[in-house]
Predict the structure of Glycerol-3-phosphate dehydrogenase [NAD(P)+].
Amino acid sequence: MAGSDGAVAVMGAGAWGTTLAKVLVEAGTPVRLWTREGAVAEQINATGYNPRYLPTVRLPAGVSATSDAAGALDGATTVLLGVPAQALRANLERWAPLLAPDVTLVSLAKGIELGTLMRMSQLITSVTGLPAEQVAVLSGPNLASEISVGQLAATVIACPDPARAVTVQQMLATGYFRPYTNTDVIGTEIGGACKNVIALACGMAAGAGLGENTAAAIITRGLAEITRLAVALGARSETLAGLAGVGDLVATCTSPHSRNRSFGARLGRGAGVAQTLAESGTLVEGVSSCESVLALASSYDVEMPLSDAVFRVCHQGLSVDEAMTLLVGRRTKPE
């Protein structure tokens, strides 16, 4: 099995990829950080700052940036995949021939691929041909803006191979970042993919002027529908009661640093979806995830009313007020 003494690459220099590169170095592992933009790599190496995604956080000297994927992956025994969910396949198809046979791949993306309805670990094994035991996923209540400045946080490393999960855990453990391990990849991934959709709903409610009672109801019922889907796919319900489920959900639904919640809030205040996407300048995973999550749920005959409402607002022109009316008007039943 790949050990922690080999080279480590982080593929993707967004806020989260850059933050985890910093965590790895501060935990004792030098990192090659790949970015598709050569100018960004040059600025990181020259100044120690990622000017686009983490402009105020100084990166340690052990972070070496490059726009050369082959150079980043050369000899890497652990590779963190930090590109967005819907872009992962195209990137991985280019990178797969460059991967070492016993590499550990760690997915950082939270989403379900449109069309195939694959979870990210499924996509990775499909594209690379590597066994599931070599693929881990990292998920939890992890806002990059907080972790990048050393605020306390915890996460989950899920992998079918417990020893491999522990290796990744040890590589990322610092005084402020505490990884836990489990073997429930399905539950960990479904929690991460669906929470962005529920965060959009929370943001919409807040933007429309609704208060904390509404937020609590959305979070609670959102967790119920996420758990229903995860269990239908074969996950353990207790995974969704932990960091990868309720922990990630609460952080994303309540934090002003959450892109999905902030995006939803703008919609709740009356902004249009297309205009808000154009003005946001950053990826809002929940907008695409709501479509694939709902399609996946439908294929397993799982009811997800909150996700359905978010999908209708984002893709079918339903107003936020109409969405809230639909949810309130649903038939009463036992919890």
Observations:
- The CA atoms of residues 22 and 60 lie 6 Å apart.
- Strands lie at 7-11, 31-34, 63-66, 76-81, 104-107, 135-139, 153-158, 177-182.
- The mean pLDDT is 94.
- The radius of gyration is 19 Å.
